[in-house]
Structure formats: structure tokens, C-alpha cells
Amino acid sequence: MTVVPASWQATQHELAGKTILITGAGDGIGKAVAIACARHGAEVLLLGRTEEKLAACYDYIMLEGGRTPGIIPCDLGQVSHDALCDLREELNASVGKLDGLVHSAGLLGDRKAMTQTSSAIWHQVMQVNVNAAFMLTQTMLPLLNEAPEASVLFTSSGVGRKGRAFWGAYAASKFATEGMMQVLADELGNTSNIRVNSINPGAVNTSMRRTAYPAEPPTSNPDPETLTPTWLYLLSSASIGLNGQALSAQ
Ligand code: NDP
Hints:
By secondary structure, the protein is an alpha/beta fold. It contains 7 helices and 7 strands.
């Protein structure tokens, strides 16, 4: 289901005072969400694999006059529990709380039949899309608990809600993402101020989409910048009470 009420529009300071960590912030949807959050007053922490891309996002936000972002170079395919605990301690000392955690980093893997999928690719996709998202969320829970109301957003996909041929590990990883969201939302719903939801972005003109559909004209899908109101709404106080929902941005 789509989620943003027709009457809702983010105010200029909608996310003022909030600190939001975004994975995959160097490119595509994560970058667009990071820029939009900064534009509406948030302090954003940019986590991603390629430092130059994070630096470009940082520069863009600074040029727009946003709050100084944090840059967290991190390969989620390799990251350890200990490294994430160190990150939490650093963030505890510097920002003290997390009001939002957006999991946008994702790996497509191979578009092949299950019978052709290598176990190395399978494990890699599961590591980035599922295991790292679990580890990061679990590690950051104490900081999310410090915020008066925190929002965790997982990124799903159409093939994470209905399986389709040749989407192999990616589809399975997105089903796992939905399961993780539901379990966590159920556990935290009545015991904390943390809400947990998933978003299926729909087809979006990013490098992942262009790789998955090389023959498709890129302009046939919306640019990520046009879809950011969904993330802004779910990170803002306007969505308090919404928990455990599988949502769509289109
Ligand atoms: P992009 O490929 O444009 O961006 C993905 C981001 O994830 C990149 O910044 C990439 O970093 C980062 N990333 C990948 N692997 C790692 C890693 N090991 N460690 C840290 N960061 C990593 O894809 P989208 O923006 O399209 O995808 C964002 C999310 O939306 C994904 O979860 C995807 O599955 C989902 N989605 C996208 C759809 C679409 O049509 N675009 C449709 C449905 C779901 P780097 O640039 O450094 O490689």
C-alpha cells in the first residue's frame, strides 16, 4: 500500500533535530533520501562502500546549506559485529541517539535461474541485503532507543512480496527482509518508541534497475528524487504509530 496522505507535505524543518543513518547513501535511492532528509533539517550519516560517492553526496548537502553530514565508509559484505559495535560507540559519543535508520544498500546479484546461481553470489547477496541489515539494526538498537521516537526502514522489492523466475537470491533476500521487519516490528511495537516498516520503491531509475533491465529506456521509470516524500513521511513524526507495515512508494 502507498502511505503518504494526499494532504501531507514535508515542511522545511520537518526532520530538524533528527539524526538519520542511511546505508547505500552514495548512490541511487539512498543518496536521494539522504539529500532529501538533509534538505528538511536532519543530520545525516552517510554509510556506503565507495568513499568517493559518499564524499560527493556530502559535498552536495553542504552546497545546499544542510547540516554537516557524517561519512561512514563501510563494506557491508565484509563488516563484522565488532566493527559495528565500535561504530555504535563512536556514534554514541558524537550524536548520542539515532532517530532514523534507513537500509537502502542492496546487491542485485545475478539474474539467473536458481539452478545456475552460484553459492558464492547467493551468500554475497544474503550478506549485504539480509545479514548486514540485521547486524546493523541490532547493533544500533541502543541508539535508536535513546531517541524519543525512532523509525527503522527496510527496503524491499516487488519480488520480495511475490517470487518471480530469475530473481534468485535477490528475491529470497527481500522476502527475508520483510520477515525481519515483521518480527522486529512485533517485538518492538509495544515495548519501545521504535517503529519498523518496509518500503517497496517500485521501479526506479537507478544503476541497479538499469543493470537488471538493460533493454529498458531509463526514462521509463521515475528518478529516485521524485519518490523521497515516502521516506520523509516515514521518518517524520507524522508517521508515529505506523508499525510493521509493508509499504510501497509508488
Ligand atoms: P543502487 O545500485 O543505485 O544503489 C545501491 C547502493 O548500495 C549503492 O550506494 C551501493 O554502494 C550500496 N552497496 C552495495 N553493496 C554494498 C556493500 N557491500 N556495502 C555497502 N554498500 C553497498 O541501487 P538502488 O538505489 O536502486 O537500490 C536501493 C535499494 O532499493 C536496494 O535495497 C534495492 O534492492 C531496492 N530496490 C530498488 C529498485 C529499483 O528499481 N531501483 C526496485 C526495488 C527495490 P556503491 O555505489 O559503493 O556500490
